[in-house]
């Protein structure tokens, strides 16, 4: 079973601040993903990575950026937080890619921008 | 057209009943299908995966797949109040998983 960790669990921050949401997994999964989800709403893929030094934008236009310097680490950065960024951010990983391999999700980071 | 469509909810069933959740998908090349359960405020957790036509049973859960009809379903037998959650259907596509909007299930005692 994949172990995937997100920190912080909750973050309240003021407008204009730079923030980094951390995501780490210990299973050596190549693929990692960031989803954004508002309460009661659907998941939106915002970034994904197929491996080290590989990152792609997802379906939802996002002002965030990601990096993948190490296999186990996939941080998401907002250079200047705005109230519209208030949401839950979910990190996920998968072993071989998505064929035959489900996603394993972290516990999420609930971000509030005031 | 959305890649994955789920039956509109919310779905409400009494305790002990069978809950039936449905999902259709558009990509005929899809080969992997998953059901996730998401409790309010929590992250999705995998409850079933299915790759071949037919039924797959795991405890009170049965997943059914019909690739010809591009249809996958989840049956929950003997529904319990603890099954109250949103159920997400996920289907593999080019390079990633596609999620449906989810069906909210409420099981009342």
Oligomer category: heterodimer
Main sheet: strands, sense, barrel of chain B: 6 strands, mixed
Q: Roughly how many Å apart are the termini of chain B?
A: 37 Å
Radius of gyration of chain A: 13 Å
Which chains have the largest interface?
A: A-B, 21 and 23 residues
User: How many strands, which pairing sense, and closed or not: the largest β-sheet of chain A?
Assistant: 7 strands, mixed
Strand content of chain A: over 45%
N-to-C CA distance of chain A: 37 Å
Q: How much beta of chain B, percentage-wise?
A: over 45%
The low-confidence runs of chain B, each spanning 5 or more residues with pLDDT under 50, are none
Q: What sequence of helices (H) and strands (E) makes up the elements of chain B?
A: EEEEEEEEEEE
SS summary, helix count of chain A: 0
Give the beta-strand count of chain A. 11
Percent in helix of chain B: under 10%
Residue-averaged pLDDT of chain B, rounded? 94
Question: Any idea what the shape of chain B is?
Answer: globular
Order of helices and strands of chain A: EEEEEEEEEEE
Shape of chain A: globular
Task: Describe this protein's structure.
The complex is a heterodimer of chains A (114) and B (109). Chain A is mainly beta and 114 residues long. Chain A has no helices and 11 strands. Chain A has strands at residues 4-7, 10-13, 19-25, 31-37, 44-51, 54-57, 65-66, 76-78, 87-94, 104-105, 109-113. In chain A, strands 2, 4, 5, 6, 9, 10 and 11 form a 7-stranded mixed beta sheet that branches. A 4-stranded antiparallel beta sheet of chain A has the order 1-3-8-7, with no helix packed on it. Chain A starts with a strand and ends with a strand. The mean pLDDT of chain A is 92. With 109 residues, chain B is an all-beta fold. In chain B, strands 2, 4, 5, 9, 10 and 11 form a 6-stranded mixed beta sheet that branches. Chain B has a 5-stranded antiparallel beta sheet with strand order 1-3-8-7-6, with no helix packed on it. Chain B is globular. In chain B, 36% of the residues are buried. The mean pLDDT of chain B is 94. Chain A binds chain B through residues 33, 39, 42-43, 45, 48, 50, 90, 94, 97-108, and chain B through 31-32, 34, 40-46, 49, 51, 88, 90, 92-93, 95-97, 99-102.
């Amino acid at each position: 079973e994949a172990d995937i960790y997100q920190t912080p669990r909750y973050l309240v921050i003021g407008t204009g601040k730079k923030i980094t949401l951390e995501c780490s997994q210990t299973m050596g999964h190549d693929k990692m993903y960031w989803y954004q989800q508002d309460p009661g709403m659907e998941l939106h893929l915002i970034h994904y990575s197929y491996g080290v030094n590989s990152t792609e934008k997802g379906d939802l236009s996002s002002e965030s950026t990601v990096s993948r310097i190490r296999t186990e680490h996939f941080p998401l950065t907002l250079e200047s937080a705005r109230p519209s960024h208030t949401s839950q951010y979910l990190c996920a990983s998968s072993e071989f890619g998505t064929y035959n391999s489900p996603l394993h999700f972290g516990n999420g980071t609930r971000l509030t921008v005031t | 057209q959305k890649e994955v469509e789920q039956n509109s909810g919310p779905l409400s069933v009494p305790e002990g009943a069978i809950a039936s959740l449905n999902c259709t998908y558009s990509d005929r090349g899809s080969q992997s299908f998953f059901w996730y359960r998401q409790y309010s405020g929590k992250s999705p957790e995998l409850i079933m995966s299915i790759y071949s036509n037919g039924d797959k049973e795991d405890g009170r859960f049965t997943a059914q797949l019909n690739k010809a009809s591009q249809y996958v379903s989840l049956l929950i037998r003997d529904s319990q109040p603890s099954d109250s959650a949103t159920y997400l259907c996920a289907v593999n596509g080019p390079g990633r998983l596609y999620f449906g909007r989810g069906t909210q299930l409420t099981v009342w005692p």
